[in-house]
Amino acid sequence: MGIALVWLRDDLRLDDQPALRAALQRGLSPLPVYIHAPEEEGAWAPGAASHAWRRRSLAALASELERRGSRLLLLRGPTLDALQALAARTGAEAVLWTRRYEPAVEQRDARIKRDLRQIGLHAESFNGALLFEPWELATRQGDPYRVFTPFWKSARAAWRVPATWDAPARLPSLAHADLPAGERLDELMPTPAPAWDAGFWQRFTPGEQGARAALRRFIDDALHGYAQARDFAAEAGTSRLSPHLHFGEVSVRRVVAEVLAMGDAIGEADRDRFLAELGWREFAHHVLHHYPQTPDRNLDPRFDDFPWAAPDEALLEAWRHGRTGVPIVDAGMRELWHTGWMHNRVRMLVASWLTKHLRQHWRHGARWFWDTLVDADLANNTQGWQWSAGTGADAAPYFRVFNPATQARRFDPDGAYIARWVPELAGLPPPACFAPWEHPEPARRLAPGYPPRPQVDLAAGRADALDAFASLRRGAVQR
Q: Where does the Photolyase/cryptochrome alpha/beta domain start and stop, copy by copy (predicted)?
């Protein structure tokens, strides 16, 4: 039986794995291979939290493959050299993989596909990450979408119930193949010392089994009432599937299929709201593909002249580590630091604080999230930060400045989220815990170690942001 190299990247699963399926359908023995070459991803090579997750996900995948009679081969890059050498050594007939959509990776993959075909290998890529390829949907004029609502309306019109594929219980043996020893995982991606990521694994279990368990838990517990509960920071009201989807430990088609299989057992509002959140993920990839400059540049060129404040390292460092003096912002940043994840509503609040009240450029926040989030995805990260800053596709208007104290009162009404992540405020009851500076006496007495006031006054910061936006508009009128 011939061999097909199944080149794994952010598709670390066996279930509904199109490259694996294609190898088996061609009558070939799949040889799963992961090639470590982060330097090939350009300016947005994976951050520390991503490396921590990937290391555990690869270990889980290796165990799943061994259980099925196969193995995972780990190699170092350069990727093209590694694939060519492995194909020559094993006599492989094909190299198969699922597509990625980051600009640097797309360009690298296109070169690899061309070069592999030139030496006579069958090289083919598949959609294993999205419901719709980024180039499949367009406006009536043939242009990319820049607004979510018409994008999602078009996507739903083209909707087909996704077909999924179950991984086989056994895989063909590779005993006949001349395989290199490969790299050891602990040498390829060493475990950090000290274990700064320990808090991550109290919340998440990387790997395919962890992903399926998270999906089942979401459907059983959080999908009911999702439309409302998803906004409340202290509740387990979101799916928390984002890192599993990013690393491809579960396919989005599998997620959709299982949600739809619930039928009338799930309310229409809850189902549609969750599917729309997956739609935002699709939209982010659509925008990134068509506007590959956006991880570093404003999609809306008007903001190229926006008067951002000069970078202030003291302000940025306090924001990064949850010492802004704004409890809901500090809670979110500490949750991120300890768990590698942050509630979506709070992500908007911390981003608004940085880009509106502090007027620090959104790139500062995007880079920090990129290094600290376990679900750091270039499309979603870029879309989220440009949306919050008002500079991107379907963005929040710049003049929409979230009041973090008001948002905390609404979405953390009993202060449980703040108390969990800012324990020095746990003794302050609502409403003092939302805005301690408005209650100076109990704050001094019960939370003496917490900043006595925010980095900037909320009203003054909002006014400065609106003045900056007004100056941008005045400049546009003058031109």
A: 2-131
Residue 424 · residue 449 · CB < 8 Å: yes
Is residue 309 annotated as involved in ligand binding?
no
Residue 145, domain member (yes or no)? yes
CATH number of the domain enclosing 107: 3.40.50.620
Distance (Å, whole) CA 19 – CA 125: 7
Does 455 fall in a domain? yes
Q: What is the full DSSP assignment across 284-310?
A: HHHHHHH-TTTTTS-SSGGGGG--PPP
Annotated active-site residue 280? The verdict is yes
Tens of pLDDT along 210-254? 999 999 999 999 999 999 999 999 999 999 999 999 999 999 999
How many domains would you assign to the chain? Answer: 3
Phi, psi of 100 (to 5 degrees): -120, 165
Which residue of the set 93, 258, 344, 424 is catalytic? 344
70 is in an annotated binding site: no
Domain that holds residue 430: 301-478
- Select from 290, 319, 348 the last residue of a domain: 290
Which of 280, 337, 424, 437 is catalytic? The answer is 280
Q: How confident is the model at residue 38 (pLDDT cuts 50, 70, 90)?
A: very high
Q: Is 319 labeled as catalytic in the residue annotation?
A: no
Q: Is 7 a catalytic residue?
A: no
For residues 315 and 458, state if they share a domain: yes
